[in-house]
Amino acid sequence: MSVISVLSGPALVMAPMTKGGNLPYRRLCQALGATVTMSEMAVVRSLQHRRRGEFALIQRAPDERCFGVQLAGRAPDELKWGAELVASRGADFVDLNLGCPIDEFTRRGLGSALLRQPRRIERLVAAMKEGAGPVPVTVKIRLGWNEDERNAVDVARAAEAGGADALTVHGRTRSARYRNAADWVAIGEVAQAVRIPVVGNGDILFPEDIARGRTLSGVQAVMIARGALIKPWIFAEALGQVVDDSPEGRLAIYREYVRLAKEHFGDDERGHTRLRPFLVWHLGLWCRHIPRQADGSYVPMQERAVFASPSSPLEALLARPEPEVHGWIADRLMAGDELIPGDLPADIVPDPPADPRDRRDDRDSRQRHPTETPAAG
Fold first, then answer.
1. Which of 200, 217, 238 is the last residue of a domain?
2. pLDDT confidence of residue 374
């Protein structure tokens, strides 16, 4: 089945995410049900300078079934070159990043900075089509630069005119970054304005979020970003599979990531040194997972929760937000040791401080506060 046929149906796409889209984590998400996986955003100029780290971002795992590479660039010639490179290395499709809101990139005219220039976008996409040859070209956009410049329909039509084979629409503007709820109605308006497949993206953490987004927008394919970083098993849940999200079940998934990462980085001192920062970083997101309550309700993506009354010592440990605790857990997981909460050194970090901004939930005494995770490109 072609990539475009896949994206025309109920595909579950793992978003291109800085650091989170590392190769072993993509393999984990695919094993849990992701239909499509994507590289971290690669800057074409860095690829042209033959930077080794940038080439590592576009490496494909041998068992990745449907793999796309996302590129960031601002000139037709460089994006043509990048698309040709990616196509020659076996990617199933190449994606243009028009969504990254991070200042470091927008100041250089990359990512969502290009949303203000629809005519230029048409030329960029056309150049990528020329470079990619038969390999499909897709584009990831936001709703606009800010609320006063919500021009997603114009941008989408420009991308389509340039030859884009499919679009992904993140339901926020650049200025909103990852704040506010994603606007799936606006995603639907973009889908109605073009003839190519549109993938919806924003605020997916539970299967109900997918169903709601599909209903509001009319699109079928969805891209999952932060939700996949917090709970990689969201893909399995979306497929209707029963997932053990107990602390023990989650720990087994985390151990599987370590196994895949050792396979990729190497199970030796050098490999562990490369793996540890990724594992500590992932633990900083996994700790945000809050299971459903007994009545089936759940904490939505735009709120962050910390257990004040965890169900077990292991659950309390996995929910700890401190980097020092994540480092201790990472070392246990890399060593293959049993994770015993009582072994956590008492002086490793002080007790979690109370945050006066938190709202207390009367049902389960959870503390919540909004969060932003820079993730998707």
1. 238
2. 45
pTM (2 decimals)? 0.91
- CA-to-CA distance for 79 and 86, rounded, in angstroms? 10
Residue among 126, 211, 142 at smallest CA distance from 176: 142
Q: 376 in a domain, yes or no?
A: no
The pair of three-digit structure tokens given for residue 308, joined into one six-digit string:
């004040």
Rounded CA-CA distance 165/230 in Å is: 30
pLDDT value, residue 351: 60
Query: Which of these, 61, 15, 9, 67, lies nearest to 232 by C-alpha position?
Result: 15
Alpha helices in the chain (DSSP H): 3-8, 23-31, 44-48, 52-57, 76-88, 103-106, 118-132, 152-162, 184-193, 207-217, 226-230, 234-238, 247-265, 269-286, 313-318, 323-335
Query: Which one of 29, 66, 100, 287 is the catalytic residue?
Result: 100
Respond yes or no: is residue 100 known to be catalytic: yes
The answer to whether residue 143 scores a pLDDT higher than 90 is yes
Q: How many domains does the chain have?
A: 2
State the DSSP string of 134-152: TS-EEEEEES-SSGGG--H
Domain region containing 114: 3-238
Instruction: Give which of 9, 22, 330, 197 is closest to 30, Cα–Cα.
Output: 22
Distance spanning both ends of the chain, measured CA to CA: 26
The CA distances from residue 359 to 74, 305, 364, in Å, are 43, 9, 12
